[in-house]
Design brief:
The chain is mainly beta. The chain has strands spanning about 10-15, 30, 35-40, 40-45, 50-55. The chain has one domain (about 10-60). It contains no helices and five strands. The strands form two sheets. It has a three-stranded antiparallel beta sheet, with no helix packed on it. The protein has a two-stranded antiparallel sheet with strand order 2-3. A hairpin with a 7-residue loop joins strand 2 and strand 3. It is globular. The two termini are about 25 Å apart. The structure holds zinc ion (ZN).
Length: about 60
């Protein structure tokens, strides 16, 4: 369980962010216009203060 960086409250993680009408969401890619897609970031929201944190569950994918 993630803790809020602001108030140390438990954050909710079963949520996602939509940025367009097709519900593709957002993704983390290598730099560049057609950067290789690495992973879809997840978010956690603090129900107390509303802080949103982006995080990647499998950070091993970044070690290349
Ligand atoms: Zn908070």
């Amino acid at each position: 369980m993630r803790k809020c960086v602001r108030c140390n409250n438990e954050m909710k993680e079963e949520l996602e962010i939509k940025v367009d009408m097709q519900s593709y969401g957002i993704s983390v890619t290598r730099k560049g216009i057609f950067g290789k897609k690495i992973v879809k970031p997840q978010i956690a929201v603090c129900p107390k203060c509303g802080e949103i944190s982006f995080f990647i569950e499998n950070v091993n994918l970044l070690k290349e």
